[in-house]
Amino acid sequence: MIDQSLSTAEFDELDAFLMAEGRPRAIMDIAMLDGFVTALLTGPNTILPSRWLPEVWGETADEPMVFDSTAQSERMVDLVMRLYGARALDLREGADLYDPVVYTREEDGKTVSVIDEWCTGFMRGVQMDPTGWDPLFQSEEDAALMMPMILYGTETGVEQLNQNESLRARHQNLADALGICVIGIRDYWLPQRKAGATVRRTEPKVGRNDPCPCGSGKKFKKCCGGPDRLH
User: Is it the case that residue 203 has pLDDT exceeding 50?
Assistant: First the structure.
């Protein structure tokens, strides 16, 4: 079901699929996907899966996402939607903790968080609705909630990091602040989301003749499970 969290094996399965050879160059890795859905779930407006799923696959006119089979297409859409649903539960109103999915590396005997991919994914989520997000950037205090994401998830931010040693020295502090920033962003947009909220339920399993989970309104076999999306 959509609200069923991924098991460790399923999480690894999705991770392996995203990292496999032959995918579009802009396909997200698992950390980027986590940041992306987090932005979608905490932002000002609800974005339908029909708009954001192609962004996950990194689809372009030159590089469409091509699945090996209908079964693989169904499976990967299901895993992504369940990750999305699980994150929605993590970010429900009242929850005060958020633990982002980030890579780590060992450095001088210490474990250091690698947050570039997660932040890039978050900013890709913001870019799904740039006009909607704009009010948050009108106040320095509110915009400060986006500081780690901007520094590590945009070209201008990375340039700033490269030129500012004091910022680089604060790396782990900025990484540790991600969860706090996410909760702050959620709370900033929560009144707007509640005022304009609509509930959209997705079927727990996707059959060939069921509505496609991407939200297009088409049958799965005519959309994400269509022959043009398969080898």
Answer: no
* 119, HSE (Cβ side, Cα atoms, 13 Å): 24
Q: How far apart are CA 6 and CA 10, in angstroms?
A: 6
Residues 6+ apart with CB under 8 A from 88: 41
User: Which residues share a beta bridge with 131?
Assistant: none
- The burial of 39, by beta-carbon neighbours within 10 Å (0-12 exposed, 13-18 middle, 19 or more buried), is given as buried
Give 111's DSSP letter.
Answer: E
AA letter at 92 = R
Element containing residue 18 per DSSP (H, E): helix 8-19
Output the CA angle 94-51-178, nearest 5 degrees.
40
Model confidence, pTM: 0.84
And the tokens for 14? 């999705």
